[in-house]
Amino acid sequence: MADLRVNLAGVELSNPLIAASGTFGFGREYGELYPLSVLGGISCKGITLKERPGNPPPRVAETPGGMLNAVGLQNPGVDHFLENDLPWLRQQGTAVIANIAGNTPEDYCAMAEKLSDSSVDMVEMNISCPNVKQGGVQFGTSCQGVESITAQVRKYCKKPLMVKLSPNVADIGEIAAAAEAAGADAISLINTLTGMRIDIRTRRPIIRNNTGGLSGPAVFPVAVRMVWQAAQRVKIPVVGLGGISTWQDAVEMLLAGADALQIGTVLFTDPYAPIKILEGLEAFLEKEGLHSVTELTGQVRPW
Amino acid sequence: MKKYDVQSCQILSKKQLTEDIYDVVVRTELARIAQPGQFAQIYVEGKTLRRPISICEIGEDTLRFVFQVRGDGTDRLSHSQVGESWNILAPLGHGFSLGDLSRKVCFVGGGIGVPPLLEAARRFGSQATVITGFRNKDAVILQEDFQKAGCRLILTTDDGSAGEHGLVTQFLPEDCQAIFACGPTPMLKALAAQAEKKGIPCQISLEERMACGVGACLGCACKLKTQENPAGWKYGHVCKDGPVFDSREVDFE
């Protein structure tokens, strides 16, 4: 049996597959289908300091090979998460990653401080949400912005800090390096690419927010490229995500330089996808005669 | 058994009811846990998102879906053949709360809002008056099914080409003790107002663009009234809090 365990900035994961933030809620819904311990970890729905109502509907639209969403970070707030969701999640036998988003650096710091005193395994700082007017991506699209917010939050965050990067940037390598320089323990990428669809009869954007974040198989090649570029620039672990749908995609992302993976949109196509991806990954490792999944990381042979 | 699950379900029968409405019955154990008013998420080969389709009728080990071709995905579903299988995630959501089956109740459906009412109406049988509205005579569906269940029928069409000429909302019987409805928002809004005036409960089934179908992604938001916050409203979700809501909860704006 090949070893699927990975160590992500000091957090031991039973396997490299993490449910991506925003696609898995706080775990309860998919927990109806299978034990959540099949996953290496869960990155929870993005939380903010105070409750957020989210954007008006429609919030989702299908696209060729993917979908757009503009949920707008609807969530019950960090205190609600700590009181109502974390205790339950803690019992599920999987790593718990709290994904945080804020309007201001102070918001991020206040949440990092609260979460430092909790039982979460890791904090994922979302500076790449394209669907809210204030905060989110405004911190994530320049090196200076990424460095500044990461350094500030680092001071308050006693947990391993992972910075989730936006693909809506000119040079992802520079951004990744900025996060590492400012003290990030890991980076995850990519968040969604900003997109738009228009109803040709009504001439209205299908999504009420006009634009939304594109995810799903359509973004996979972009994600592989960005993970490859980012991984070459940093020594900290890289978590690859963006359109992973099959075990072959998972292998590809690992080869590009990912230490661990997140899966999201594929859950909507097939809620059992994590189990199928892990089975396929394990069989591939056996066939290749590899002892550990970590032997795949970064092993692409570029021309 | 799980609350909902994914199963491969063989298609037992398929009929075309109108120009764009199809009637498909599948065999599945999921029928045993399905409730009237719930829905299913049906996988379409090559599509990222499943298609949310209401459950029209629940048999011992069968589910019936009556759906409209709206786009490419539902078009592909309409081309499925008997003997093939659908990959179905079901039963999902919060269905109709039927309550006392001896009450005189009224089911009101507009167009493709009619199919989700059938299973609940069947359970009330002759106690149910079923008022359905369609564009014209060619769009009329499911009348025999309600009749077979013993329901009293009032058929309306927008152009008078079948049944009564007019809107479903004009025909609510005086003695109606509860309303169950599904259809266009203006119809639901009008019914909610009538129910409030009469002081009777009204449950309405809503739809919204949806992704996960189970309450994880928060895609299918709908505005609900609430006392929980000073704003007086919050976003609930059609897939988990609904699709059936108490009409007093819904903020029509």
The major β-sheet of chain B equals:
7 strands, antiparallel
Largest interface comes to: A-B, 38 and 34 residues
End-to-end separation of chain B: 40 Å
Give the overall form of chain A: globular
Number of domains of chain B: 3
Give the CA-CA distance, first to last residue of chain A.
Answer: 32 Å
The number of distinct structural domains of chain A comes to 1
**Which regions of chain A contain 5 or more consecutive residues with pLDDT less than 50?**
none
How many helices of chain B does DSSP assign?
4
Report the principal-axis shape of chain B. globular
Low-pLDDT segments, ≥5 res of chain B:
none
Strand content of chain A: 15-25%
State the total count of DSSP E strands of chain B: 16
Which CATH architecture of chain A?
Alpha-Beta Barrel
Describe this structure in words.
The complex is a heterodimer of chains A (303) and B (253). By secondary structure, chain A is of the alpha/beta class. Chain A has a single domain, classed as Alpha-Beta Barrel (TIM Barrel), CATH 3.20.20. Chain A is built from 9 helices and 14 strands. In chain A, the strands form 3 sheets. Chain A has an 8-stranded parallel barrel with strand order 3-4-7-8-9-10-13-14, surrounded by 5 helices. In chain A, strands 5-6-12-11 form a 4-stranded antiparallel beta sheet, with no helix packed on it. In chain A, helix 5 crosses helix 6, helix 6 runs parallel beside helix 7 and helix 7 packs across helix 9. Chain A is globular and about 50 Å long. In chain A, 58% of the residues are buried. The mean pLDDT of chain A is 96. With 253 residues, chain B is mainly β. Chain B folds into 3 domains: 88 residues, Beta Barrel (Elongation Factor Tu (Ef-tu), domain 3); 98 residues, Nucleotide-binding domain of ferredoxin-NADP reductase (FNR) module (Rossmann fold), CATH 3.40.50; 48 residues, Dihydroorotate dehydrogenase, electron transfer subunit (Dihydroorotate dehydrogenase B (pyrk subunit), domain 3, Ribbon). Helix content of chain B is 13%, strand content 34%. Chain B contains 4 helices and 16 strands. In chain B, helix 2 links the parallel strand 8 and strand 9. Chain B is globular and about 50 Å long. The chains are: A alpha/beta (303), B mainly beta (253). Chains A and B meet through helix 1, strand 5, strand 6 and helix 8 of A and strand 14 and strand 15 of B.
